[in-house]
């Protein structure tokens, strides 16, 4: 029997990336230079939000998608935070509601007016205080309206019920800074990665850790649930300091199913998973390329497809929801790439090449829509429900009926599980202590320089006074 190479048929093996022309990009955006490992970008079918560089607090831009081209330097901003903004996320069910978190320890909910901002917005519709350190991550629940998660540098995850504007649950199983959060498709499980080199699968309502992996050979940075396949994918670094991805069974984290080394670069790898096409996209921070793979339920599980290449390095990437894609062009995914050096936001479309102009039902199955499947009280009581699906065949034109109403409440102590979160401050990490030490050293150096300048000025004045007294006119 003659040997034949194994051939795997796939409708996505010829997917290619297409960068938008310059007139369809967003130019002149002062993208933040913060080194925090987040995307600093969020996008939905109506607006693009980008965290910007600003002095005296944190701010971000909100631009209507049709307003492409050069952005004016005095374009209105959302600028209510007192510290740098570290993460922003759009509400999946209400398209003009966005959550932000900051170094000022707060999480804020903003309501963007129709047509975008006309002037600077400083007042949030809801301010949430519960963390004792800066807040690095916010994440909306995928099926329940008004449930928001936030993870802070106090090693805690708070679950907020925005109907009442209070934290209703606290997950405090982490021993170090939380790096990433990911919900499964119905929001019943939460996967987390942590700086203590552990991968955890948590039941969010009880805070109970269901599975835990101590990743010594594969130091995890990012994690994503692979839809309803009961699999997890993590990106991280191998023991040889090469970038690596690993596939896990969510019910058994004792060993990864596969580990695959990507390259020897140092930038963080961001994973993006499309449950409709079973495609995985890998984009490295500081890279110009985006690799994409196809995930299958059988070995080898991961099949390399192709790579989109660009000379411009990316700081972060925003992802358009499915109902915002161009179905007529067979677009299956769209990135918004942040190019800091040029102040440019560049859309990149991932396209399946098809000759027919009719609706391609095989690449556009029913997909999660903009209607919540549960209320906060239902989810908190233990109910799980799959997302409400919609078809993209007729195009997306239906507006969501969900409206956000901010609760009226007074500022007070935040008590969850019998603990006042604002009083229970964890010990500082070694990195935080080092940063404080260097800041104090810089301040001491600055004060010494000021004192030296004053001494020089005093000597100059004394010399001038002496010369004045000894001058012939005064004698």
What does this protein structure show overall?
By secondary structure, the protein is mostly beta strands. Helix content is 9%, strand content 38%. It contains 2 helices and 34 strands. Strands 1, 2, 6, 28, 29 and 30 form a 6-stranded mixed sheet that branches. Strand 8 (85-90) and strand 9 form a beta hairpin. The protein is globular and about 105 Å long.
Key words describing this protein structure:
mainly beta; Methylamine Dehydrogenase, Chain H; 2 domains; 4-stranded antiparallel β-sheet; 34 strands; 9% helix
Outline of this structure?
With 475 residues, the chain is mainly β.
Total beta strand runs: 34
- Please identify, by name, the CATH architecture of the largest domain: 7 Propeller
The name of the CATH superfamily of the largest domain reads: YVTN repeat-like/Quinoprotein amine dehydrogenase
Please give the radius of gyration in angstroms.
26 Å
Could you tell me the CATH topology label of the largest domain.
Answer: Methylamine Dehydrogenase, Chain H
| Average predicted confidence as pLDDT | 87
Low-confidence stretches: 1-7
Q: Per DSSP, what share of the residues sits in E-state strands of 2 or more residues?
A: 35-45%
Number of domains: 2
Class per helix and strand makeup: mainly beta
Instruction: Tell me roughly what share of residues is in helical segments.
Output: under 10%
């Amino acid at each position: 029997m003659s040997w034949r190479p194994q051939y795997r048929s796939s409708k996505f093996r010829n997917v290619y990336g297409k960068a938008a022309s310059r007139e369809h990009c967003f130019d002149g955006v002062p993208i933040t230079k913060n080194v925090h490992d987040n995307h600093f970008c969020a996008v939905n079918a109506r607006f693009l939000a980008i965290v910007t560089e600003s002095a005296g607090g944190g701010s971000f831009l909100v631009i209507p998608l049709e307003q492409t081209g050069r952005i004016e330097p005095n374009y209105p901003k959302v600028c209510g935070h007192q510290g740098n903004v570290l993460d922003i996320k759009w509400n999946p069910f209400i398209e003009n509601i966005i959550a932000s978190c900051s170094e000022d320890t707060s999480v804020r909910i903003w309501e963007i007016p129709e047509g975008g901002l006309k002037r600077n917005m400083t007042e949030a519709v809801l301010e949430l205080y519960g963390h004792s350190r800066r807040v690095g991550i916010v994440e909306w629940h995928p099926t329940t309206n008004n449930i928001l998660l936030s993870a802070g540098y106090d090693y805690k995850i708070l679950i907020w019920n925005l109907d009442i504007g209070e934290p209703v649950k606290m997950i405090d199983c982490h021993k170090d800074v939380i790096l990433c959060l990911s919900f499964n498709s119905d929001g019943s499980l939460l996967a987390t990665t942590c700086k203590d080199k552990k991968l955890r699968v948590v039941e969010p309502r009880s805070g109970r850790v269901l599975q835990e992996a101590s990743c010594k050979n594969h130091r995890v940075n990012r994690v994503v649930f692979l839809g309803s396949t009961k699999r997890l994918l993590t990106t991280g670094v191998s023991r040889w300091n090469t970038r690596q991805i690993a596939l896990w069974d969510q019910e058994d984290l004792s060993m990864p199913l596969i580990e695959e080394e990507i390259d020897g670069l140092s930038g963080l790898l961001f994973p993006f998973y499309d449950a409709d096409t079973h495609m995985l996209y890998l984009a490295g921070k500081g890279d110009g390329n985006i690799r994409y793979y196809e995930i299958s339920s059988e070995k080898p599980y991961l099949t390399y497809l192709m790579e989109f290449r660009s000379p411009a390095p990316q700081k972060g990437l925003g992802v358009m929801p499915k109902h915002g894609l161009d179905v007529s062009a067979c677009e299956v995914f769209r990135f918004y790439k942040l190019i800091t050096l040029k102040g440019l936001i560049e859309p990149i479309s991932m396209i399946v090449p098809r000759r027919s102009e009719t609706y391609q039902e095989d690449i556009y199955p029913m997909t999660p829509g903009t209607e919540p499947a549960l209320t906060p009280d239902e989810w908190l009581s233990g109910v799980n429900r799959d997302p409400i699906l919609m078809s993209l065949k007729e195009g997306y034109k239906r507006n969501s009926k969900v409206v956000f109403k901010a609760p009226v409440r007074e500022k007070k102590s935040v008590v969850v599980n019998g603990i006042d979160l604002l009083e229970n401050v964890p010990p500082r990490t070694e990195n935080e202590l080092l940063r404080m030490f260097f800041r104090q050293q810089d301040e001491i150096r600055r004060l010494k320089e000021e004192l030296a300048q004053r001494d020089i000025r005093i000597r100059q004045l004394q010399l001038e006074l002496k010369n004045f007294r000894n001058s012939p006119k005064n004698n």
